[in-house]
Automatic annotation (TrEMBL):
Subcellular location field: Membrane
Family: Belongs to the cation diffusion facilitator (CDF) transporter (TC 2.A.4) family.
Organism: Paracraurococcus lichenis
Name listed for the protein in its UniProt record: Cation diffusion facilitator family transporter
Membrane topology: Multi-pass membrane protein
Keyword Membrane: yes
Membrane-spanning parts: 7-28, 34-55, 75-97, 109-129, 149-171
């Protein structure tokens, strides 16, 4: 079992524990804002389970049907998580509207708030760990889970402050208002998550900063060549695919051109973990005089 899979499995366990705590907080208080917080945790459980399936599948080696590997499976998990977040937001808005029409004061507010605070603390710590591991392993599924948990932490903190305000001031309309704001917040985070994940499925180019690093690595390691053009890049989970045409002098031997390609590949792999590189060598008559010029 890889480290990424272990983190994904642990996320399922932690999501279930946090759901139990937040459900208990809602049961103690009857607060619709805490119910909204608990409903979001239902999404956390489903999303963590989907992420576990995705990271296990994405770790499979390439085969005849999937020669580029299975790493894009993690994007499907992230898209599903974004969709579940949107469903949860709609359910929360429905509950908030009912509570707005029939407001009631929370019961056992102190006990409920303490339980909810404990759940929020667990989510915050785990979100931080997931961010570290997700960036280290370049796992879209773990990073999606981490972003969702971070949004949950921010939401939960606002709910805790708001429910405390309801208990202290007796302003019952604050409870459904907080629930509605919670729904809008997670709706925004869900839509952003889906956009990023769909971008991965649609083979969006790498971000400008990484593209600059790729161009610099090619330019400084291709001594003996003339230029590189038609550079194309894309992410597929934790892999980064890089393709370009390398123009060399027409009289250069195959061995010499191959040595340049090896040097470029080594530079790119040292710069970018998980780089998969394809280089098409062309004679100088194919030069386009644009793209990456060799320094």
């Amino acid at each position: 079992m890889t480290r990424v899979v272990r983190f994904a499995a642990a996320s399922v366990v932690i999501a279930c524990a946090v759901l139990a705590l937040k459900t208990g907080a809602w049961w103690l208080t009857g607060s619709v804002a805490l119910l909204a917080d608990a409903l979001e945790s239902v999404v956390n459980v489903a999303a963590a389970a989907a992420a576990l399936v995705a990271v296990r599948y994405s770790a499979l080696p390439p085969d005849a049907n999937h020669p580029y590997g299975h790493t894009k499976a993690e994007y499907f998990s992230a898209v599903l998580e974004g969709a579940l977040i949107i469903v949860a937001a709609v359910a929360i808005l429905h509950e908030a509207w009912g509570a707005w029409l029939r407001p009631h004061a929370p019961e056992q507010a102190t006990a409920g708030l303490l339980v909810s605070a404990a759940a929020t603390g667990i989510n915050g710590a785990w979100s931080w760990l997931l961010f570290r591991q997700g960036r280290r392993s370049r796992s879209p599924a773990l990073l999606a889970d981490a972003r969702h948990l971070l949004a949950d932490v921010v939401t939960s903190a606002g709910v805790l402050v708001g429910v405390t305000g309801v208990a202290l001031t007796g302003l019952l309309w604050l409870d459904p208002l907080l629930a509605a704001l919670t729904a809008l917040n997670i709706l925004w985070s869900g839509s952003k998550l889906m956009r990023e994940s769909v971008g991965g499925l649609m083979d969006e180019a790498v971000e400008p900063d990484l593209l600059g690093r790729i161009r610099h690595a090619v330019s400084t390691s291709a001594e003996g060549a003339i230029e590189a053009h038609d550079l194309r890049t894309r992410h597929a989970g934790r892999l980064t695919f890089i393709e370009f045409h390398l123009v060399v002098p027409g009289q250069m031997t195959v061995d010499a051109a191959h040595a340049i390609c090896d040097r470029i590949e080594a530079a790119l792999k040292a710069e970018i973990e998980g780089a998969t590189i394809t280089i098409h060598v062309e004679p100088e008559g194919k030069a386009k005089h644009h793209g990456v010029l060799v320094l």
